Automatic annotation (TrEMBL), chain A:
The keyword Transmembrane helix applies. This is Amino acid ABC transporter permease. NCBIfam families: HEQRo_perm_3TM (TIGR01726). Keywords: Amino-acid transport, Cell membrane, Membrane, Transmembrane, Transmembrane helix, Transport. Residues 27-228 form the ABC transmembrane type-1 domain. InterPro entries: AA_ABC_transptr_permease_3TM, ArtM/GltK/GlnP/TcyL/YhdX-like, MetI-like, MetI-like_sf. It is found in: Cell inner membrane; Cell membrane. The chain crosses the membrane at residues 22-51, 63-85, 105-125, 206-231.
Automatic annotation (TrEMBL), chain B:
It comes from Frischella japonica. It comes from the Bacteria. The keyword Cell cycle does not apply. Gene3D superfamilies: P-loop containing nucleotide triphosphate hydrolases. It is found in: Cell inner membrane. This is Amino acid ABC transporter ATP-binding protein. One of its GO terms (molecular function) is ATP binding.
Length: 244, 241
């Protein structure tokens, strides 16, 4: 079998540069989706995770239900559900615009970002909760004894320490979100995975394309891990594990 | 200054405090001792409401802290507390550990808070460490910082919950020295400790607890020379070599 390893440097039939440009476009979409979903996941996950540590029964129960809902349904199913249901939930001009006028790729992007963001937020919520709950209980006592309000205690004491603790698990959650973003191609998003079919249609060289896409994913994730290692180093405290 | 009236507390079915009644007068130093599991740490944590009680009343001055209408946060800020494991905030510098609550709770300006913090650090002999993180200090130094942090709030009473139990032996004295000095200055103090040397030196009264009950509440002289109960005699025999 002959492989054409220079495939990515050949011009596309549409006159829009070489196939490497297509791969690059896919990578940009994948990264944008990952970042958008991450912002959603981090914000919602933090709020739900914090709620999970409250004594209030209603807030706590709501947080538990939220986590179980988004954590226990496969991402693929969630992606489909958002894709089918969300446009139906809109009404009037907004619905027409969303279904008919919006660029199909943007349309898919929005739905994929919501699905992936909510799915990941449930996982982040559990990590934030663990981060807070594994802090020594004395920290809470000390903050309370000094007269800090609950809000101040979370803002100035618990959260800064909890996030420091969970930097490593957040890193792996980031690489997960990049890998999971590939599911968005099933609802029509032309991301890195979406480009596989596109390039293959005009070149018929699936093995080479898969190698190129795989390498791109590895490069992205390796960069994320490298950056997060720096973050971890920067935020690490002396004797952090002693709790003092 | 502190009044505990018939305090009872349960963890599920297990009763940790049984009908405890005592009071601490202004300027008095009261040492609370007893075997481990006797409820002394729980008792001291009820004083500023860190541990809620199911029965009984607690007053600081004239303010009842067991009442729902009391602004607990405000009241707590005037009750200094020092913990067994220091509980400095590990991500903040020593200086910020001392200024945070002054600024956020008492509403002091940054400059005012800093000035107060530095003068108290000076007092516990740690001015040179203001910009370090807690993890860079020894246990004894951290506990002295913790005392300074509590004093920054101008407390009317100081609670100490086994302040030297987590320290290496050679660091116990540097912390006790600060506490003794504080006692001589007339600070009202309630101290849970096994350091009987400290009790002999500065305590006015000793409270002895066992199994959640206050079984002796007498003057220091009486407690050390003539304890009334067998349990206290037994405890003293074990702890004083």
């Amino acid at each position: 079998m002959d492989f054409n390893w220079t495939l990515f440097f050949e011009p596309t039939p549409y006159g829009d540069g070489i196939y490497l440009n297509w791969l690059w476009n896919g990578a940009v979409v994948t990264l944008s989706l990952a970042i958008t979903s991450w912002v959603i996941a981090f914000v919602l996950g933090s709020i739900i995770g914090i709620m999970r540590t409250f004594k209030n029964k209603w807030l706590n129960t709501f947080a538990v239900a939220y986590i179980e809902l988004f954590r226990n349904i496969p991402l693929l199913a969630q992606m489909f559900i958002w894709y089918m249901l969300m446009p139906e939930m809109l009404s009037g001009a907004l619905k027409t615009w969303f279904i008919q006028d919006l660029d199909p790729n943007v349309h898919s992007f929005i739905l994929a970002a919501i699905a992936l963001g909510l799915f990941t937020s449930a996982r982040i919520a559990e990590q934030v909760r663990t981060g807070i709950q594994t802090l020594p209980v004395g920290q809470k006592y000390a903050a309370t004894a000094l007269g800090l309000s609950k809000l101040q205690m979370y803002r100035y004491i618990l959260l800064p320490n909890a996030y420091r603790k969970i930097v490593p698990t957040l890193t792996s959650e980031m690489t997960n979100i990049i890998k999971n973003s590939s599911v968005a191609s099933t609802i029509g998003l032309i991301d890195l995975i979406g480009q596989i079919d596109r390039i293959n249609e005009s070149t018929n060289s699936i093995v080479e394309i898969l190698c190129g896409v795989t390498l791109t994913f590895m490069l992205i994730n390796y960069s994320v891990i490298t950056i997060m290692r720096l973050v971890e180093k920067k935020t690490r405290l002396p004797n952090m594990m002693s709790g003092g | 200054m502190i009044t505990l009236k018939n305090i009872s507390k349960w963890y599920g079915r297990f009763q940790v405090l049984k009908d405890c009644t005592t009071q601490v007068e202004k300027g008095e130093v009261v040492v609370v001792c007893g075997p481990s599991g006797s409820g002394k740490s729980t008792l001291i944590k009820t004083v500023n409401g860190l541990e809620p009680v199911q029965k009984g009343k607690i007053f600081i001055g004239d303010t009842e802290i067991t009442s729902n209408s009391t602004n607990l946060a405000r009241l707590r800020s005037r009750v200094g507390m020092v913990f067994q494991h220091f509980e400095l905030f590990p991500h903040l510098t020593i200086l910020k550990n001392l200024t945070l609550a002054q600024i956020k709770v008492l509403g002091r300006s940054d400059d005012e808070a800093k000035e107060k913090a530095l003068s108290l650090l000076e007092r516990v002999g740690l001015s040179a460490h203001a910009n370090k993180l807690p993890g860079q200090l020894s246990g004894g130094q951290q506990q002295r910082v913790a005392i300074a942090r509590a004093l920054c709030m101008d407390p009317v009473v100081m609670l100490f919950d086994e302040p030297t139990s987590a320290l290496d032996p050679e660091m116990v004295n540097e912390v006790l020295d600060v506490m003794v000095e504080l006692a001589y200055e007339g600070m009202t103090m309630m101290v849970v400790t096994h350091e009987m040397g400290f009790a002999r030196k500065v305590a006015n009264r000793v409270i002895f607890m066992d199994k959640g009950e206050i079984i002796e509440d007498t003057s220091k002289e009486q407690f050390f020379s003539d304890p009334q109960t067998d349990r206290a005699k037994d405890f003293l025999a074990k702890i004083i070599h």
